[in-house]
Structure formats: C-alpha cells, structure tokens
User: Fold these one by one.
Assistant:
Number 1:
Amino acid sequence: MPHPPIGPKDTLGDIYYKTYTKEAHGDAPHHPPWGLKQKDTFLEFSPCRDWFLNSFPPGEVNQQRAQTHDGLYHAYIVGEANTCAANYQIVREWRKMVKERGDWEKYRERLLRQVKDFEKLKATFTEEKAKFDSEKKSEEWGREGLRSKLRATEELLSKERAEWKEVCKKDNQRMYATRSKITNLEAQIATLVKKVEDVGADKDHVEVHQT
C-alpha cells in the first residue's frame, strides 16, 4: 500500500516513513526521527506517542500497513492476549523470582566470605610454609655444622692417635735401648763380681800355701 503524498503539516517522522523504499534505504540503519529528549519520561502522553510513532523501522511499518483490517485486528488480539498472559505469569512467579534472588544473594555473600576465609588460610599457610622452610634450612645448616665439627674432631683424633703411636714407638725404642744398656751393665757387673771373687779366691789359696 503506497503512502499518501507528503503534506505541509507532515512532521519529520511522517516524511521519514513516507519517503522510505526498500530499494533505496533497505540496508540503511534505522534512525528514529523522534523528538524525545533525555529528560522525558513515559509518565506523559506526548513522549509515549512519539515513541510509538517513530520507534519501529519503516520496513515493519509498511508490513503492518499492508495487512487488512481483519489481519491487524487478529494480530492485535493475539499479541495483547500473549502479552497479558505473560504478564500474568510474571506476576505469579514474581515472589518466587524475588525469593530466588534473595537466596542467590545470601549464597553469594556466603561464597564471598568463604573466599575471604580461604585467602586468609592461604596467606597463613604461605607464612607457615616460609617459616618451616627457614627452620628446615637452619636445621640443615645446624646438622651440617655438627657434621663438620665431627669430621674435624675425627681428623684431630686420628692425627693425635698417629702422633701418640709415634711417641709410643719412640718410647719403646728408648726403653728397649735402655733395657739393653741395663742388661749389658748387669752382665758387666756380674763379670766384675766374678773376677773379684776369683781374685779373692786366688789370694786365699796363696795365703794357705805360704803358711
């Protein structure tokens, strides 16, 4: 159905919709030619009428204009019935939706608290782990220090044992040499005593013969 010709009292919206053709403007973006301002609300008649008159793209407007009066009436009845039925169901489920939202908010708060508790536990665990690693390292260093001292003590003991053996060896040699000297001196003394005794015996024998 063609649009009526543009008249002198036509608004920008009227001109926008009347000059539309699918071939010339079909792929162009829809820019509603309304006079709505940012401060407008739908509490007044004029902004609501302006929104209804200009919000739909020209293609949809032409499609609806092409319908018969019976077709428009049928579409209106079906659309209003579905809208009312949907509104009715929304009202019925509103309390359930609000309750579910409240439960979800409580769950969200509980989850956030659990996350905060987890972060605290994680921080505590990290701190305790760092402390444990530090103490473990100190303990390892302590054990290494003790092992070093033990090795040094064993080396010193081994050295002293070797020196003691050397001293004992030298002492044994000196004692053996001394004992040998003593044995030789005892043998010499025994020889001298025997000689003295022999001399004394010879003297007595001479004196007996002289008498």
Note: Residues 69-210 form the longest helix (142 residues).
Number 2:
Amino acid sequence: NQKSWDIKPMITFRGLVTLISSCPNLRKLGLVFDATTVDLPTAEKPGGGVCNTNITTFDVGCSPIEHPLPVAVALSAILPCVGQFNTELVELVEDKEERQTKWDEVSKFISVLASVRG
C-alpha cells in the first residue's frame, strides 16, 4: 500500500519553470516536485531567463532531493528572492531527516548565492 509521499512527483524543474512563467504575478508557492534531477534546458541560464521576484518563501512539502547545490543554483536563478524553503515531512517518509538536511543546505547555498549577487 503506497502512500503519496512514497511516489516520486511527476512535476520536474521544467514544470516548475513553466508554472512560474505562466503565472508571473504569483506571490506564494507551495509545490511538491521532483528535485532529484535539475532538468533545465541550459546550465548557463537556468530557467531560460524565467524569473519571479515576488515569491520569498517556497513550501516544498516532502519534495525529494538528491544534490542541494545544483538545486540551489537553479532555484536562485528562477526565484531569486526566496530565502526560505519550508518542508512538511511526515513521520512515515523513510528519508525524512536526510530530505530536511538537504533542503536546509539549499537554503544556506541560496543565502551565499544571494550575497554574491549583491
């Protein structure tokens, strides 16, 4: 009996970029997405220039994540004003602590990237 948090989300980074480009006035964002692969079209310009400066907090729920640094680089390009990532990890998520640690690392990397940007 599989629970919803055990199933890998079908929404990818590309889907996130499409959402942000389609909703430029979006101010709040809560979305469980697959952060295990940064599948953006170009590494030089993650998101292809799509950017939302209205969103400051991103509720990522129980989004799976593997490598915090590339996730932080991509998210800082498309959501440069986000300073906080909120997780909602239920006790039954097997890698709950690992996911929380990785999303905390994303927040730290984002802070560093923001300070470098000025």
Note: Helices lie at 13-22, 68-78, 96-117.
Number 3:
Amino acid sequence: MRTFFSFVLCALLAMTCWAETTPATTKEMLQVAIRQVTQLKTTKQSDSLFYSPTTGIEDCCSWSALECFSSQLLSIPTSNKALQAKLRKTLSKKIIVSSVDRCTVEQKAKVNCQPCNSYPMIESNEFMKNLLTLLQKSFMQLP
C-alpha cells in the first residue's frame, strides 16, 4: 500500500513539474497580459499623463507601440507594484512581442514608426485602455 501511494505521489509531482516547465502558448500569454492590464487598471491610484500610442497604429509599428507602453508602465502610480513589474516582464517576453509584431524585417524597414515621445500625452486610464486594445487586437488576430 505504501509503495502505491509513493508511486501516485511521484506521478503527481512529475505532472506538476511538467506543467510548470511547459512553455505557454501565445494565446495563454496574451490572456495573462490582458488580465494583468485589467487588474492594474483597478489598482491605479491617481491620474498622470503618459505618451500613448492610439488605436490608429500603423500595422508594422505595433512592436514600437508595445515598447512605448512597456517603457512607461513602471511610472503609473499604483498600490500594486509587484503586479506592475510582472506586467512589464510579461510584455517583454518574446512570445508577446512576436504576437504583436507580425511584420517581416523588410516590411518594418519600409515604415517609419513614431518615437514614443511623439504620441499624445493622455491620462493613465486612457493609456491602459489603449494598451489593452493593442493586446486584444493581437489576440483576435491569432489563428
């Protein structure tokens, strides 16, 4: 009987380790990012102004817009600094960047993306809403 329980325990431990080390899919990672943005919106403490890419981002400039959002995330006043750092780390993951950026190197070379400080400055609520829109748009374009 003891051997059987040891076997079951080892099997459960092996499955848990496998689940923890299996890479997440693009859809799962985008869902995590979307959930983190939504949670961060609720913990925001006050309004500040941020450069924010708007919904009219050129197709091959989405990666640049994501960098702009990510570079300013830690400046948002919030009571949940851990979530803020976690979201920034999530947005920097290659799987997220590649899901937002669907253009080839040649296509990107043909466009001139705006620098972050050329976007309009808007309040943090709109900033978060625009980031959420970019992530949701990427999620909807997945196969």
Note: The CA atoms of residues 4 and 10 lie 10 Å apart.
Number 4:
Amino acid sequence: MLRRPKSIARQAAVLMAQNLESAEDASAWMVVFACKSVFQILHTSAAPLIASLIDCHLTSDTANLSYTLLRRVLTALIHHCNSSEQFSVVASLVVDRFCTLSQAEDVNHQQL
C-alpha cells in the first residue's frame, strides 16, 4: 500500500502511520515491509518513504511518536540490508536532511 502512491498520497499514508498511537509496532512494521525488497536490499520506494517520514517528523506536533517510528524503521532497515552499499541511499538522505536543517536559522534543534 505504501509503495504505490505518488508523493501527496504517500505523505498522507505516512501521516496515517505516524498517528497510530496505540499501534506503534504495527506502524513501524508497515513502513519496514514497504521498504524491504528481496535478497536483503531496499525497495526503490524506500528513499521516498523515509523522506516522507523525516518530513513528517520535522513538522510533527507529537515528535516523540514520530521519532520512535523513524528510529524503529531505520534500525530494522539497517539490519535487513546485506551491506552498507544497500543502505547508503537512505543514509545519505538522513544525513542530507540533517545538514540542511542544522544550517537553517529558525530550526527547532530538539527535533533534530
């Protein structure tokens, strides 16, 4: 379900996954399974999904829930990948977003 939608629909699906307050594990596994592919590699939709998660976290009013979701997803994907090369797309995305936000003047550093 999370792999097929385009950017606006994907954002809405990620927001829905983020707001499942009593089902945090189910939310995380929903995103993880959408990002996984066969042979211990990531699906091509992994980068846009993670980008949507990061964007939702940075604009979220409930940063604790989104942080937990993001942490669980990234941890599961790191353990799923066969090599560091397989995870490099997601790692680069996380580092790029962090660098961009840390250089902004009006950033809430607690969300980083």
Note: The longest helix spans residues 84-103.
